[in-house]
Specification:
The protein is mainly α and 114 residues long. 58% of the residues lie in helices and 0% in strands.
Protein backbone atom coordinates (compact mmCIF):
# COMPACT_ATOMS: atom_id res chain seq x y z
CA UNK A 1 0.00 0.00 0.00
CA UNK A 2 1.36 3.39 -0.97
CA UNK A 3 2.01 5.70 1.95
CA UNK A 4 3.47 8.63 0.01
CA UNK A 5 0.06 10.01 -1.04
CA UNK A 6 -3.15 10.23 0.95
CA UNK A 7 -5.77 8.74 -1.37
CA UNK A 8 -8.67 10.79 0.00
CA UNK A 9 -6.68 14.00 -0.27
CA UNK A 10 -5.77 13.15 -3.87
CA UNK A 11 -9.37 12.44 -4.78
CA UNK A 12 -10.57 15.66 -3.12
CA UNK A 13 -8.00 17.74 -5.00
CA UNK A 14 -8.80 16.04 -8.31
CA UNK A 15 -12.53 16.65 -7.85
CA UNK A 16 -11.86 20.34 -7.14
CA UNK A 17 -9.58 20.45 -10.19
CA UNK A 18 -12.18 18.83 -12.43
CA UNK A 19 -14.79 21.30 -11.23
CA UNK A 20 -12.47 24.27 -11.94
CA UNK A 21 -10.98 22.69 -15.10
CA UNK A 22 -7.45 23.37 -13.85
CA UNK A 23 -5.21 21.35 -11.53
CA UNK A 24 -4.86 22.79 -8.05
CA UNK A 25 -1.36 23.35 -6.71
CA UNK A 26 -1.94 20.59 -4.16
CA UNK A 27 -3.09 18.15 -6.88
CA UNK A 28 0.07 18.90 -8.87
CA UNK A 29 2.18 18.30 -5.77
CA UNK A 30 0.47 14.97 -5.05
CA UNK A 31 0.68 13.75 -8.64
CA UNK A 32 4.34 14.70 -8.96
CA UNK A 33 5.05 12.89 -5.70
CA UNK A 34 3.49 9.80 -7.28
CA UNK A 35 5.62 10.30 -10.42
CA UNK A 36 8.70 10.45 -8.20
CA UNK A 37 7.85 7.41 -6.06
CA UNK A 38 6.47 4.88 -8.56
CA UNK A 39 9.70 4.52 -10.62
CA UNK A 40 11.59 3.66 -7.40
CA UNK A 41 10.12 0.17 -7.71
CA UNK A 42 11.98 -0.29 -11.00
CA UNK A 43 15.67 -0.56 -11.78
CA UNK A 44 17.51 1.49 -14.37
CA UNK A 45 21.06 1.08 -15.60
CA UNK A 46 21.50 4.85 -15.94
CA UNK A 47 20.03 7.58 -13.72
CA UNK A 48 19.31 9.63 -16.87
CA UNK A 49 16.99 6.88 -18.11
CA UNK A 50 15.02 7.07 -14.87
CA UNK A 51 14.74 10.84 -15.17
CA UNK A 52 13.62 10.54 -18.79
CA UNK A 53 10.81 8.09 -18.02
CA UNK A 54 9.73 10.20 -15.04
CA UNK A 55 9.52 13.24 -17.35
CA UNK A 56 7.39 11.27 -19.80
CA UNK A 57 5.09 10.16 -16.97
CA UNK A 58 4.77 13.76 -15.72
CA UNK A 59 3.96 14.87 -19.25
CA UNK A 60 1.22 12.24 -19.52
CA UNK A 61 -0.24 13.31 -16.17
CA UNK A 62 -0.43 16.93 -17.29
CA UNK A 63 -1.88 15.93 -20.64
CA UNK A 64 -4.52 13.41 -19.49
CA UNK A 65 -5.33 14.38 -15.88
CA UNK A 66 -8.86 15.48 -16.77
CA UNK A 67 -9.87 12.06 -18.15
CA UNK A 68 -10.63 10.73 -14.69
CA UNK A 69 -14.37 10.07 -14.42
CA UNK A 70 -15.57 10.23 -10.79
CA UNK A 71 -19.09 9.25 -11.91
CA UNK A 72 -17.94 5.81 -13.01
CA UNK A 73 -19.17 3.31 -10.39
CA UNK A 74 -15.74 1.64 -10.37
CA UNK A 75 -13.81 4.92 -10.17
CA UNK A 76 -10.61 4.74 -8.15
CA UNK A 77 -8.67 7.98 -8.33
CA UNK A 78 -5.38 6.62 -6.98
CA UNK A 79 -5.45 3.57 -9.28
CA UNK A 80 -6.32 5.72 -12.31
CA UNK A 81 -3.33 8.02 -11.85
CA UNK A 82 -1.01 5.18 -10.88
CA UNK A 83 -1.83 3.43 -14.15
CA UNK A 84 -1.50 6.67 -16.09
CA UNK A 85 1.99 7.12 -14.61
CA UNK A 86 2.96 3.53 -15.35
CA UNK A 87 1.79 3.92 -18.95
CA UNK A 88 3.86 7.11 -19.24
CA UNK A 89 6.89 5.30 -17.85
CA UNK A 90 6.40 2.51 -20.38
CA UNK A 91 6.03 4.99 -23.20
CA UNK A 92 9.16 6.81 -22.08
CA UNK A 93 11.12 3.57 -21.80
CA UNK A 94 10.05 2.55 -25.28
CA UNK A 95 11.34 5.87 -26.65
CA UNK A 96 14.74 5.74 -24.99
CA UNK A 97 15.39 2.05 -25.50
CA UNK A 98 14.82 2.13 -29.27
CA UNK A 99 17.91 0.90 -31.02
CA UNK A 100 19.66 -0.21 -27.82
CA UNK A 101 18.83 -3.86 -28.33
CA UNK A 102 18.04 -6.17 -31.19
CA UNK A 103 14.75 -7.90 -30.65
CA UNK A 104 14.74 -10.54 -33.35
CA UNK A 105 16.13 -14.00 -33.82
CA UNK A 106 17.42 -15.17 -37.16
CA UNK A 107 15.83 -18.42 -38.29
CA UNK A 108 17.87 -18.90 -41.43
CA UNK A 109 18.89 -22.47 -42.21
CA UNK A 110 22.55 -21.59 -41.61
CA UNK A 111 21.88 -21.03 -37.90
CA UNK A 112 19.84 -24.15 -37.29
CA UNK A 113 21.49 -27.45 -36.45
CA UNK A 114 18.70 -29.92 -37.07
Amino acid sequence: MANYVNRKELETEILISLENKVLTDKAVELLLRMVKEIPRQMRYKYEEDKKDVMAEAAHDILKYWDRYDPNNPNANCFAFYTQLIKNGIGKGWKKISKGKTTQFVSLSSNNLNI
